[in-house]
Each structure stands twice: as structure tokens, then as C-alpha cells.
Amino acid sequence: MSIELPEAKILAEQMNEELRNKRVKCCHLEDYERLQRIGMLDKDMESFGQLVHGKIESVTSRGNVIRVKLNNGMNLVLAPEYGGKLFYHTNKKTVPKKFHLKVDFNDDTVLTVGLASMGLIHALRDNDLNRSYVYRRDFNSDVASPIDEEFTFKHFSGLLADNNRMLKSVLVGKDAVVVGLSNSAFQDIVYRAKLHPKRKASELNKGESQALYDAIKLVLEERIRLKGKDQFCDLYGNQGGYTPTMGPNMKQQSCLICGTPVEKLSIGGGQVYFCPKCQV
Fold first, then answer.
1. Structure confidence by residue, pLDDT tens digits, 19-70
2. Which of 72, 122, 152, 197 sees the fewest Cβ atoms within 10 Å?
3. pLDDT per residue as tens digits for the range 136-153
């Protein structure tokens, strides 16, 4: 389960509601050596100690990255991305035995963060934020966020017009024209837009570009409204209510629109499910 823009937004809003004005009592890291070796967690362990005694000013998100800003110039940057779990505990008995980061607050509440396959946990000072690749990618860039008011069809269609890449690389990855989408959302979006996943952006006519724009907005808005995907658990452990219309859940299934068996392609290092009849 990938934490994309909708789920990061849900978590950040819940964290902002619960954690704002709380003071960090202590931080504890577990089973972190592997994460350090592959660059998913700071090698400088003292940076987490600098969070202690800081008071949380705000929690925000952009793309699939969450920024916890403290009043002492420190930040906790979280990108749970693939299978990450963030939970808030008002009772210490509910704290799981396995986690990567545990943050205790002065009022005896606790935040736990666990990463599964890929993700990131960084403790950074304000002037070091750009040292984090994911922070630069999602927060400190000119790349559009699909839920911002500035993300209009006119703006989006302009990004597509001269882009001679396949749609997946246009919407997903380090060179994408938007932030916060991964392979999961991509499959759902191009299915709803009735576009073949190997289509090139520059080949889309105005109607197809509009369909793609509308599908992006629809999928993200629905995932936010329904509190995330059905494999996602929010800060309180509540499961999301959004079931994708296309993706791995449609393996060996038939298209919900036309009944054609769903097929699978390998594109850009991932598997993409699609309907060969509806998506052209």
C-alpha cells in the first residue's frame, strides 16, 4: 500500500489537530541500522535528540511528504511512501512492539512511525531541509500539486503539449509534472480517463487531456473524501474507504465497464493493470 498525496494529507491534518502545541519529551529509535544503510534515516543520530524539548508548531504535507515543524528550528520530515504506518497513542499500552521511531510527548501521548519497504525519516534543522531529496521534490519545487488552486486545466494541458514521454513518466517519478502520485493512483487515473497507459502526453487531443485532468482531480478528491484507500490506516488505525477501480485488486478480474478481461503491462519498473478495450 503506497502513501500518496491523499493519504499524506489525511495524516498531516490529523497530526496537526492532535500534535500541535505538544512538547517532545523524548525520542526512541528501533531497528534503524538497515534504514541508515540505504539512506532512509539520518546517519547522525544526534539530530533526533535535537527534537527533544521542542514544541510542535504545525504539521503540513505536500505530495506524499509530511513536515512536522517545531519551534526550536527543528523539523521531522516523514515520507512513509510504501507501506509506512503512523499512529497516535493516548494510551502507552497500545504502542506496538515494532516501530522505527517513537516520539513521546509531555502529556504522555505517543507518535509511532514505522516504514515497510521504502520511505524516509529525517530530523533536520530549518536551514538543512533542502538536504532531504523528498523535501526538495515535494515541498521546495515548482512542480504542481494536483490539489492546489493553481492546478488548472490550462496549466496542466500546457505541461502535456510538448511532453513526448509516456503518461506514466509524466505523472509518476522524479521527472513528473505533478507531485504526490505513484503507480497506484496512475492506474486508477488512466482507467477513468480511458487512456492506454503507454500513450504519450504530446499525442493527446484536447478532449483526452481534459479527461486525464478530470480523472486526476476525481481520484484524489474521492480518496481524500473517503479517508484514503481501503488498505490505508489513518493516525487512529481507521481503515480508508476508497477502493481503486483499476490496479492489483483487478488481477484476473474483468473490466467493470465492458466486461473485458483486465490485462497487465510492465511500465517504468512497475506493473500496470488496464482494460485493453476501454483504454485506447
1. 999 999 999 998 888 778 777 777 778 899 999 999 999 999 999 999 999 9
2. 152
3. 989 977 898 999 999 999
- Please give the tally of structural domains in the chain: 2
Of 86, 103, 138, the position where a domain reaches its end is 138
pLDDT at 171 over 70: yes
Domain with 206, as residue range(s), is 153-274
| HEC sequence for the chain | CECCHHHHHHHHHHHHHHHCCCEEEEEEECCCHHHHHCCCECCCCHHHHCCCCCEEEEEEEECCEEEEEECCCEEEEEEEEECCEEEEECCHHHCCCCCCEEEEECCCCEEEEECCCEEEEEEEEHHHHHHCHHHHHHCCCCCECCCCCCCCHHHHHHHHHCCCCEHHHHHCCCCCCECCCCHHHHHHHHHHCCCCCCCEHHHCCHHHHHHHHHHHHHHHHHHHHCCCECCCECCCCCECCECCCCCHHHCCCECCCCCCECEEEEECCEEEEECCCCCC
Q: What is the pLDDT of residue 1?
A: 59
